[in-house]
């Protein structure tokens, strides 16, 4: 279970870093930004299709992080019944 928690935490941090990188010009175009984009963008794109930006503010990453947290909790509950 600790490995699963670590994986969710690392992915959450990757999303947060990716969001912060979007505020600084040129960082997402760096090699690290491109790698992070390939990891994070497929998950975020699901929420961006559903939740449009409000003016200049994109709240879909916040919803994506909340959903990731709910997925983690649900997975723990399922695994606790199995194990």
UniProtKB/TrEMBL annotation:
Protein name (Swiss-Prot/TrEMBL): Membrane protein
Source organism (scientific name): Candidatus Kurthia intestinigallinarum
Alphabetized UniProt keyword annotations: Membrane, Transmembrane, Transmembrane helix
Entry-linked InterPro entries: CCB3/YggT
Keyword Transmembrane helix among record annotations: yes
PANTHER family, A to Z: PROTEIN COFACTOR ASSEMBLY OF COMPLEX C SUBUNIT B CCB3, CHLOROPLASTIC-RELATED, YLMG HOMOLOG PROTEIN 2, CHLOROPLASTIC
Gene Ontology CC: one annotated term: membrane
Transmembrane annotation, as ranges: 6-24, 59-79
Keyword Iron-sulfur found: no
Homology family: Belongs to the YggT family.
């Amino acid at each position: 279970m600790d490995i699963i928690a670590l994986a969710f935490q690392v992915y959450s941090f990757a999303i947060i870093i990716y969001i912060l990188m979007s505020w600084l010009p040129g960082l997402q175009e760096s090699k690290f930004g491109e790698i992070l984009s390939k990891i994070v963008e497929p998950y975020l794109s699901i929420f961006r299709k559903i939740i449009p930006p409000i003016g200049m503010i994109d709240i879909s990453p916040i919803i994506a992080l909340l959903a990731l947290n709910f997925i983690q909790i649900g997975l723990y509950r399922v695994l606790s019944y199995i194990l």
